[in-house]
Amino acid sequence: MIIKCSVKYYGIISDIVQMDTDVAEFNSFVPTLNDVKLVLEKAYPDIKEVDYLFAVNHKLVSDLTLELKQNDEIALLPAFSGG
User: Fold this and answer.
1) What distance in Å separates the CA atoms of residue 83 and residue 3, rounded to the nearest whole number?
2) Which residues contact 42 (CB under 8 A, 6 or more apart)?
3) 50, exposed or middle or buried, with CB in 10 Å at 0-12, 13-18, 19+?
4) According to DSSP H, which parts of 1-83 are helical?
5) Separation CA 34–CA 41 (nearest Å)
6) What's the Rg (C-alpha) of the chain?
7) Predicted model pTM
């Protein structure tokens, strides 16, 4: 079984990966948010230098062991501050 999730990049992260959206595909296992993080940081090492948060289906998520499901939407949100 192939699990596909959409991935959206924002701010400096979209500059690093040079795209706004992508599709992550995982074969033969249930991926976690940490699996996505490892794949992205291997493909784009500069992401490691950025503080960012994950959102899954429009909700901030800090638990990297969260198991992803077919058609989940993952967003990488760079840290921001307001004044």
Assistant:
1) 40
2) none
3) middle
4) 11-17, 33-43
5) 10
6) 12
7) 0.89
Instruction: Using the Cα atoms of residue 31, residue 17, residue 43 and residue 61 in order, give the sign of their dihedral.
Output: negative
Q: Which residues pair with 3 in a beta bridge?
A: 26
- The tens digit of pLDDT for each residue in 1-55 reads 899 999 999 999 999 999 999 999 998 788 999 999 999 999 999 999 999 999 9
| Burial letters 9-36, b for 16+ CB under 10 A, else e | beebbeebbeeeeeebebeeeebbbebb
Domains of the chain, first to last: 2-78 (3.10.20.30)
* DSSP assignment letter at 20: S
Closest CA to 27 of 57, 53, 4: 4
